[in-house]
């Protein structure tokens, strides 16, 4: 974990967590580097999600599989934390609360559960908060270093690229780094004006209008906007060369992607799928992987704790197979071993073993 990430997590613990929880987390030692989520539930044991599994957390920082010795979070501690997350102004954060999460300084996200309040068929807000899940933000710069070469096409152009994988295999992390590299440019590649439609505030993790993640110097961010609407908005107002979106799914998303392509704008996107064939079977967006669709397809998975990336062209020809170096912060490296498992088998295993970066 970098010094910047360590400082961000220290600031998070100091700014938002009640005293007992703060003290417990400060005592877990080196395992803090592996902490991905902090789950705080009313009258329930404090739990941390680590890179390998989840553990209950004791007042002394001990980690265990059983809740007997864990710190029990009080209702008052949960509400105190909720008000800290909202800067003591729940009204000011109503739009975020209606979406189920609040983006915190440093790019972290606080997911919120409670009793949902409806106004007609629209969610109005939430009361009686029952749990908060803080997902820690870690940007792994360089994880796309060996993949970017398959995305770039000449000095000032890229291929329309689709990233596929089951949940929690690192699609968003890879997408974020590809965006940074495309916006930044390097030797032989000039860098391109890039627009990010950050519907779930996960790519840029904007806090009060300032992206907490580095998406490159030529990147504009449209935060909290639906992809189907945001693509048209940036086409009209920002004149991007490249548009970046996360998790394509609906027919409206597909229409918006076609709109961007018809305007001559390149697009990089992700979607949940095990394979191109799986994606092609999805109603609405599946057509985007057919003829005249995405030109590069990157499939992600994990086998025996090692993440892999398969790079393919639009016709399904494999261009490269890469595995990740040891350690969650490292990038992919090329694999030249014989006897690599078939993609179908590897993809099926990925569904059971995927973890976040």
Shape: globular
Name the beta content range: 25-35%
CATH level 1 name of the largest domain: Alpha Beta
Name the helicity range.
25-40%
Number of domains: 2
Please count the helical segments. Answer: 10
Structural class: alpha/beta
Radius of gyration (CA) equals: 21 Å
Assigned CATH architecture of the largest domain? 3-Layer(aba) Sandwich
Instruction: Average the pLDDT over all residues and give the rounded result.
Output: 88
Number of strands: 18
Distance between the termini: 12 Å
Order of helices and strands: HHEEEEHHEEEHEHEEEEHEHEHEEEEH
* Unreliable stretches covering 5 or more consecutive residues: 336-357
Across the major sheet, the strand order is 12-9-13-14-8-15-16-17-18
Please describe the biggest sheet, giving its number of strands, its sense, and whether it closes into a barrel. 9 strands, mixed
Can you put this structure into words, describing what you see?
The protein contains 10 helices and 18 strands. It has 2 domains: 3-135, 2-Layer Sandwich (Beta-Lactamase); 148-353, Rossmann fold (3-Layer(aba) Sandwich). α7 runs parallel beside α8 (251-262). The longest helix is centred in the N-terminal third of the chain and has 14 residues, at 3-16. By secondary structure, it is an alpha/beta fold. Strands 12-9-13-14-8-15-16-17-18 form a 9-stranded mixed beta sheet, with helices on both faces. A hairpin with a 2-residue loop joins β6 and β7. The relative contact order is 0.11. It starts with a helix and ends with a helix. Mean pLDDT is 88; it is low at 336-357.
């Amino acid at each position: 974990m970098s010094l910047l990430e360590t400082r961000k997590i220290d600031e998070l613990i100091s700014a938002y967590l009640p005293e007992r929880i703060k003290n417990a987390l400060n005592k877990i030692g080196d395992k803090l580097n592996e902490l991905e989520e902090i789950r705080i539930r009313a009258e329930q044991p404090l739990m941390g999600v680590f890179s390998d599994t989840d553990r209950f957390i004791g007042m002394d920082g001990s980690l265990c599989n059983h809740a007997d010795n864990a710190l029990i979070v009080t209702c008052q501690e949960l509400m105190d934390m909720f008000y800290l997350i909202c800067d003591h102004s729940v009204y000011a954060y109503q739009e975020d609360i209606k979406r189920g999460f609040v983006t915190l300084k440093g790019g972290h996200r606080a997911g919120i559960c409670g009793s949902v309040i409806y106004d007609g068929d629209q969610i109005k807000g939430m009361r009686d908060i029952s749990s908060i899940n803080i997902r820690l933000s870690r940007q792994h710069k360089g994880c796309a270093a060996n993949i970017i070469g398959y995305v770039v096409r000449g000095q000032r152009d890229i291929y329309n690229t689709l990233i596929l994988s089951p949940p929690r295999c690192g699609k968003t992390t890879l997408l974020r780094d590809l965006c940074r590299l495309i916006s930044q440019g390097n030797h032989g590649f000039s860098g391109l004006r890039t627009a990010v439609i950050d519907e779930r505030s996960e790519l840029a993790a904007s806090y009060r209008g300032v992206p907490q993640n580095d998406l490159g110097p030529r990147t504009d961010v449209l935060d909290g906007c639906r992809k189907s609407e945001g693509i048209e908005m940036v086409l009209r107002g920002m004149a991007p060369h490249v548009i970046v979106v996360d998790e394509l799914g609906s027919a409206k998303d597909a229409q918006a992607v076609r709109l961007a392509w018809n305007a001559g704008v390149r697009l990089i996107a992700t979607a949940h799928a095990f394979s191109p064939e799986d994606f092609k079977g999805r109603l609405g967006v599946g057509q985007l992987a057919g003829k005249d669709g995405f030109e590069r397809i990157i499939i992600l998975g994990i086998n025996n704790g090692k993440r892999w990336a398969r790079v393919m062209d639009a016709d399904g020809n494999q261009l490269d197979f890469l595995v990740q170096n040891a350690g969650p912060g490292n990038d992919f490296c090329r694999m030249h071993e014989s006897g690599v498992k078939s993609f179908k088998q590897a993809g099926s295993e990925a569904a059971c073993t995927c973890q976040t970066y």
